[in-house]
Fold these 3 entries.
Entry 1:
Amino acid sequence: MSEYETSFATMAQTLGENLAMQRRRLGLTQKQLARDICSQGLISNIERGNYVPNAILLGQICNRLKMSIDHALLNHYYKISHHEDFNETVEQLCNQHLYQQMRDYLEKSELADHLQRDDDLQIYYYYHACSVYQLTKDAPVSLRELNLALSFTYSPHQAHLTSLEMIIMSCIDFVESESNINHEFNRFKQLENIILNDENLTLDPNYSLIFYQYALTLFHHAEMHKSIDIIQTGIKWATDHNVTFMLADFFFLLSKEYITIKDNDNAQTATQKYQVLESLFHQPINQTID
């Protein structure tokens, strides 16, 4: 199978899994989802990754499922192998920002005791570190778990970083910077360079988080013009690659930056854009950035 065929098959599988997950979340049967749109058999084939619908059909399905096409096509969450119930629960809790429930669920699931693959253990400790930091802002504990998560797969001698390794490194720089442990932003700079210049890098919408965390950290350190430069770079990267993940957050942060430097015209434009994107893609925005 060629690289193109492999990528297409992966996209079809991701699309099918995301649609099936949302259908079950809404309590719909395949027959109910298909009503007045297509046949139940076609829905079944789409969910199994055997058929990719055209844009019109996909739009009708997503509209009934109350989800954006972007959310259907792209998987913003890292998943542990063969634990779909766990993956669905963590995704729901993340989407609703229910970090206490997520931390409780992770700790009570005892899943970590049964995981064998290093990449699965990495995902587990990444999510746990995120929930701990969101709840407590305890930098030492969060950094210990983030570095543990990174250690499962990362080697300083490897030629390329995986997507999750890049996200974890971004989180480490973010926590260190927010906690006044490190103001050098070296990991952020390295990751930005990789995203913009590595021609072999596989596209992942999660890279939007790296631009966002970098810009937010600069914003918190009152480096407004640098922060604006990074967020604009992130917006350009996202639009160049048809990525809408966190695009509304980009413009919300940009509006706050322009307000801070008293650039009212650009602040108004950024505000209008994040409001449109929030409505269009049903993306929850982090409005607690100060």
Entry 2:
Amino acid sequence: MKNRLFITAIAASFLFVSCGPEKAEKQAKEMPAENKVELTDAQLKNTEIKTGKIEQRSISSLLKVNGKIEVPPQNMISVSVPMGGYLKSTKLLAGMHISKGEIIAIMEDQQYIQLQQDYLMAKAHFNSIEKEFIRQKELNQSKASSDKVYEHAQTEYMAQKVLIGALSEKLRLIGLNPARVNESSISRSINIYSPINGFVSQVKMNIGKYVTPTDVLFELVNPADIHLQLTVFEKDLDKITIGQRLVAYNNTTPDKKYNCEVILIGKMCLLKGPCRYNVILKIMTNR
């Protein structure tokens, strides 16, 4: 009886061991693999899936940021009068187009008359001083006059040249050509000319008002070289590089696209709110 029980136990254990791996393999076959999709031939034909070799490629991404149009400082002109005066006339209005060299205002003041008078008198006095200097130079070379007299004539001659040069620059500063200033052309008014091609941004003075040298008459803008200033979050900054080409548009006409190029990336984080950086784009052309 003991032998029979022992054999039965061995057989039972044998059956248990032999059945274990088969059951595990069967369960493994029944469990579906994760992230695995099986398609039939008909499904492959309908979806038109193409397969290929694994390779490295650049993957593009879309980054949308907001910004505003900025005009660089060299394209923004504040028009003032170096010597001040009364604004006699102007026809400028905000938004008007202006051309370089165009008369945009006429100023009037008695100091313009005084400056022209001083210049003409200095030139007239210079002629006699120059003749005296040449005469004393010849006398000194022939030992007919002392060195002291010659040096005094030379000093007056040089001082008068400096005076004429300074007055000439003052005339140019207010837009007058010294070569055209004579006793019959003295004027109490001067013209103010536009230094750029562009548009009038602001008109800050009215006719009849006195303008000091520090006052601004007009603000002019040259739109030929406008920039786009973007605000980019720190997490997106690695997606922007110098020289990168971007496409911009405004909310008013979203269908009109502008080609831009990144020319500057700010190095300082903006203080208000999350860390953001200024990115400057140069607007190239519109599509």
Entry 3:
Amino acid sequence: MPAQGISRPVTKRARPWRCALFCLGLLLSAALPADTNPGDCPADRIDARVRVRFVPDGDTLILADSRKVRLIGINTPEVGHDGAPNEPGAIAARDQLRRILFGQHNQLALRYDRERKDRYGRLLAHAFLADGRNLTALLLERGAGFHILVPPNDWAHRCYRNRAEAAREVGRGVWGMKAWRPIPSRELDPRTRGYRIVKGRVVRIGDSRTARWINLEGRFALRLPRKDLEHFKGLNIDALLGRKIEVQGWIYARKGELRMHLRHPDQLRLQTPVDTISLNLMPPSAEGGWLGTLGGV
């Protein structure tokens, strides 16, 4: 893929291929689900207008001025680097994003959140197409990736969560792939790393100086940093003991066990019937609903 654009420049001799690629794009676009609520997750303001030069993966953009933009609210499967294999769905997510931008002449509007850059120096933003559609919401609804929330950037998180849930209900995109099915915590391979969905029964809840801890069956622990506990104020964490839950996030290893940072209730899903009295929470849906109900639009 040339570094100067999302699509390869063509010459007269390449015109038959250009036509073939264009027709293929139309066919692929026709195969995608229609946008049920194209006006959903609308921008409340626009902070910048940019041109995209290159799309390396399904949630990252490189702008014409060489800045990198990480889309807020979505995590797509990783494109392999340095000999590592692509994660299932990675190329599909990347190519879908490229097709969307090609149809918009690579132009986007950006809306920043409370934190503008991540630890890698990438610009963090919500992106919008010329017709007003929210790019993250569109990708989530098409099953290109998973909804994530990294505090303090929680603008529109309820809307994003609902879009991801809609895709999950019908098994669209990553939600229809065996590789991304929830893994029982007891069956986790000690070598497991990266973004995963894990389910299991809570067997212990404890505290340390810097965090609260939720231990699931097997050697798997959820770390809730104390700085993020304000986001869980609507949830009685102790009432999760003995319940089956599902969590999404990045797995890492430390002190002989696998761990995951839990920074917001949007990462947590109940797998057993909800007792709203003991949980001290009014759930957004019935059994199996996500717990997150705070902040956002």
